[in-house]
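Predict the 3D structure for this chain.
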Amino acid sequence: MSVPSNQLRKKILSSIDSHLNDYPEVAERWRAGDPTVRAMMTSIVETVLWLSRDNAVNITEPFIKSKQSTIIADAINKGILPVATPCQHMLTIENNGNSKVSLSQGRLVEDGTGRQWRLMSSATLNGHETKKVLAEQSTVNHIEVNIPVSESFYRLDVSTTDGAYLSSLSVYNATLGMSFQYTPKFMNAGLGQAAYTLQSHNLEDITIVFGDSERAGVTVQAGDTYEIAITQSYGYVDQSSLSSAALSEIYESEESKLNLYFKAGDLVRAGADPLSVAQMRLLASYPSMYDHNAVFMGNFDFLVRKHFMQRFDYMAIWNETINEKHYGASLDAINHLFLTVVAKNKIEQKALVEDIKKLVANADSLLDGKVNIKEVVERPYQITIAGRLATVHDMDSVKTQIKELLLENFGKGSLSSSYHNPDGFNKQEIAIKIRSDITAFQDRISDFSVLTEDTAENPIKPHEWAYITEDSITINMTRTADTGTAIWTL
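Done. Predicted structure below.
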């Protein structure tokens, strides 16, 4: 993304003011506001600004996104937000005093590493009583904004603090008592509807964009007060780092007698970091088929992946048509969806399944209670790399590099193996990866070919988690024909 015009203008003017010190006479006239100097310099500044805008357009990457900022901006523009899922854990509270102590909902607690947690419900403990309360690793940052001017598509910049990730955001017009709804790209937003959209090119700074009463959404009015609530968290939390805890602030002397700690096995949700750039690029490649609302018996893959991609290693969700193709016709399959999912954290496998079921039911109420779970079957994917290697390259070293590359990009836990590949991995993608990452195949002498298993004879079914393992890789390497000869080779 380009630097905003006002910011760039200030930067250039500051640079001019600094460098003019080499020319004291001109610098004095510049600071005095001499129009003969000011006019020339400011015209140069404006020319640079216009050239920077043209340059920004030229590097936009309209088709294949490769730059991190472009990928993030494209994904967020399509409603794919880099939000983190807060960790939830039962917090054990022991009252070692004799008096009753009450803790309100939202009370802040700090763990041993300084992360803040919120109590999700209130708790009252009598003397020497022990209770468990659900706590979430998140904080809410409240921002109050007064709109200075009535403006169509008014933009408001917000950001997270302390290096935390965005988990959720709410917008409320306190003047009119009206809550605004997030609507990607103002899709289907009616005239006067309280809606907003988001834009960003990184994972911390976010721009809230309001609408236009004559086109989509509603135009903000000068003098109105808006309350922005930003829920932020640190995403995934390692359970081994959780032990003792303490109240962030003590309001009563009896609260100092409370003993707070996280007990092993009381994890409710491990949490998840925001989508990585590679994951956002994958989701942004999906066609915009249904305005982010899955249609009945349609493609729910994007919907589930968008919300839970960071919480599973593999997921496939399919309808009765695909089910009949792979498993045969069945009365039990009519008007049902089928789901196979492998949670990153085995402890939250059951919770993840329930969350996906709720998401599906929310998208289509006719599918409430009609998602059948099919257990995953791991399927090592057979692949053979055959090639000829020039004599200058060490064969064992190249074989090791190939194995490490394949396991990293197409092995268990990789992005490429996280979704159903009915035809197996793309051989062209594998070949491009090997040629670009392994220098031995960049000398115009060495060569290789990629051979994979025949999925036409044995297709990969949706419940089969296909990935490359060390044992499923076969590498056949020979030396090139020019080995040992004293000839020049181009």
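The longest helix spans residues 35-58.
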